[in-house]
Amino acid sequence: MPNIEIPADRDPMIFLWAERAGPLGAAAAKFSNTAYYASKLSPREFEIVRMRIAQINDCRVCQTFRSPRDVVGRFDEDSVPEDVYEHVGDSTWSGFSDRERLAMEFAERFVLDHLAMSEDGAFWVRLHEHFTDDELVELACCAGAHLVNGRINRVFDVEGDCSIRPVVRFPDATVASSSPGAAR
């Protein structure tokens, strides 16, 4: 049950972001839209980061969301096989590249222990062996976008049966669901 008042005929998550959050909801939508449409991370890296954060946040919507399927015009449908999603969180899986493992570890530490992460010189050496500084900042921005949206959804318990797919990009860089009048 949502932790804020939601009209019975409204989708809780869409209502929170489109109506309760006001201009902050629009800003969050632009940040999220930018992460989805402008990230230079590979589709697999992007989804590994997104899914690991979804697991940690226990965001049910995010765990069933698949960017190649649900984000219009961004990823090829077959760019991230389902077995990648099934193994996110398991850094020993042989199907991950070193870079993908590091992206997953980055996301996990970003969410769970950012203070220790910032001072772990050996970790940063490993990161710099595989990522440029620009890619690392982008990795953090994508992780941050996924973290905040998923956490807000869980804190307010508004996941419900949200109809957020497919996500459509509009010319003004806002994002909306295919549901009438829904913005995200």
What does this 3D model show about the protein?
- This protein is mostly helical.
- It has one domain: Up-down Bundle (AhpD-like).
- The chain is built from ten helices and two strands.
- The protein has helices spanning 12-20, 22-38, 43-57, 60-64, 67-70, 82-87, 98-112, 114-118, 121-130, 133-155, and strands at residues 168-169, 175-176.
- Strand 1 and strand 2 form a beta hairpin.
- Helix 1 packs across helix 2, helix 3 (43-57) packs parallel to helix 10 (133-155) and helix 7 (98-112) crosses helix 10.
- The protein starts with 11 loop residues before the first helix and ends in an 8-residue tail after the last strand.
- 34% of the residues are buried.
